[in-house]
Design brief:
The chain folds into two domains: about 45 residues; about 220 residues, MetI-like fold (Orthogonal Bundle). Helix content is about 80%, strand content about 0%. α7 packs across α8. It is globular and about 70 Å long.
Length: about 270
């Protein structure tokens, strides 16, 4: 017992040390970027309309956390919650449909032959190209925004799911069938579970695409949301508020991605932190 513990301890220490060093480098990188931003804004650009300093951006951010913008609208917290709800709604719907389509593509060759051309045609198309049509069909309410996000997520998730399921070793599937598992049971309890790390990688990519889509569509057809705030601030040359909105989007995106990364590490213990 003592021998086993002594051999495992160095590896644990190295892993902990490597994680701490990774975080220290990341924090130092962010601090360095803020310093460069501050110096560029204060001594190179020297125009707050073109480039506000980080201090000014944080000041504007704190101000509008409690002050509505526009005056009859929401605070930045309210706008952020509206955008977040749209992103999560469209992302959840698109992920569910995309995973289902990807599973069907991996399980049935005839289904893949039918669906694959449409996936390949729609995948390179920017979701924003469909905004005018969605507005004509559904108006400027919540439906076109959620549908737009879901439409961008579905192809990514379908391809990621199908690729993950195709990569499952044939021996694993044969073992499940030898134990009496049906085709559907093998798909749900063996293939999908084994492919979850790659599926979540697709979800991480889709989450970034979701934020890109929602901010763009809120600039075109919305009366609330972070994209709407950024557009309104740009029209009045309020660059500090523009950067504050971008900062909130970045923080929300990092938070959601961190949740997906934690889930990915939980499902795949061999993954490095």
């Amino acid at each position: 017992m003592s021998t086993g513990s002594t051999t495992e301890a160095p590896g644990v220490l190295r892993s902990s040390s490597g994680t701490s060093r990774h975080w220290m480098i990341s924090i130092a990188s962010v601090i360095g970027g803020l310093i460069v931003w501050q110096l560029a804004a204060a001594f190179v650009i020297r125009d707050p309309v073109l480039l506000p300093t980080p201090i000014e951006t944080v000041r504007v951010l704190i101000r509008y956390l409690t002050t509505p913008y526009p005056s009859a609208g929401e605070t930045l917290i309210g706008h952020a919650l509206i955008s977040l709800g749209r992103v999560i709604g469209g992302f959840a719907i698109g992920s569910f449909i995309g995973i289902a389509i990807g599973a069907m593509m991996a399980g049935f060759r005839s289904f893949r032959a039918v669906v694959d051309p449409f996936i390949e045609i729609t995948r390179p198309l920017p979701p924003l190209a469909f905004v005018p049509v969605l507005i004509v069909w559904f108006g400027i309410g919540e439906a076109p925004k959620i549908i737009l996000i879901a439409a961008g997520v579905v192809p990514v998730m379908a391809i990621s799911t199908a690729a993950g399921l195709d990569a499952i070793p044939r021996e694993m599937l044969n073992c499940a069938r030898c134990l009496g598992a049906s085709e559907w049971y093998t798909m749900i309890h063996v293939r999908i579970r084994a492919a979850m790390p790659q599926i979540i990688t697709g979800m991480r990519l889709s989450m970034g695409l979701s934020w890109t889509s929602i901010v763009a569509v809120e600039m075109i057809a919305a009366t609330a949301g972070l994209g709407f705030v950024i557009l309104q601030a740009g029209q009045f040359l309020d660059t500090g508020l523009i950067f504050a909105g971008i900062l909130i989007i970045a923080l929300l995106g990092l938070g959601l991605d961190a949740c997906l990364r934690r889930l990915q590490r939980h499902l795949d213990p061999t993954m490095k932190p």
